[in-house]
Amino acid sequence: MQNSEALALTAALLAAAGDLTRRINDGVEARGFAGRPAYGFAFTRLAPDGATVTELATHLGVTKQAASQLVDELVRKGYVERRPHPGDARARLVVLTERGWECTRAAEEAAAEAVRAWAEVLGEGEVRALRDGLVRIAPYGPLRPTW
After folding, report:
1. CA 130, CA 53: separation in Å to the nearest integer?
2. Strands (DSSP E) along 85-131, which ranges?
3. What is the pTM of this model?
4. What angle do CA 104, 13, 10 make, to 5 degrees?
5. CA–CA distances in Å: residue 2 to residues 7, 14, 137
6. Can you tell me the distance from the alpha carbon of 97 to that of 101, in angstroms, rounded to the nearest whole number?
7. pLDDT tens, 24-73?
8. Which long-range contacts (CB under 8 A, 24 or more apart) does 77-86 make?
9. Rounded to whole angstroms, what are the CA distances from 96 to 19, 40, 81, 90, 129?
10. 43 near 101, Cβ under 8 Å?
11. Which element (helix H / strand E) includes 147?
12. Would you call 5 exposed, middle or buried from its count of C-beta atoms within 10 A (0-12, 13-18, 19+)?
């Protein structure tokens, strides 16, 4: 692949990711949840069993202080709560509340709508092939916001 082709692919992937993030966030807001895309990136780490602030910071690629501030914001909005950590008496576990789970379901619905729009352009088979190829390239990478 030539450098110009690689740059075009990079630009297209980044544009698609940005558009997808915007569509999901807009869909979440349309369903009555106030927030910003960083919430969704945090929720992917907190579901299903919660995480410590340190684990969340690592997942998001931010400092513990930044993750702690985000958790404080999420607590104020009713999306998460801090609980005693079952395996470490010194740590606190951050878990999604019912409102956090409802917001997560709203994001899943918005994501499905966005992907359906892609299928209208590319067709179902090409969308599945795109998904399969991307999963082979980046199977478990942490989902990090671009702040």
Report:
1. 33
2. 92-96
3. 0.86
4. 145
5. 9, 18, 19
6. 6
7. 999 999 999 988 998 999 999 999 899 999 999 999 989 999 999 999 99
8. 77/34, 77/35, 79/35, 79/39, 79/43, 79/103, 80/46, 83/50, 85/52
9. 26, 11, 6, 20, 33
10. no
11. none
12. exposed
Residue 19: CB atoms within 10 Å: 13
pLDDT in tens, 59-88: 998 999 999 999 999 999 999 999 999 988
The pLDDT score that the predictor gives to residue 146 is 54
pLDDT band for position 3 (cuts 50, 70, 90): confident
Of the candidates 75, 26, 51, the one whose C-alpha atom is nearest the C-alpha of residue 142 is 51
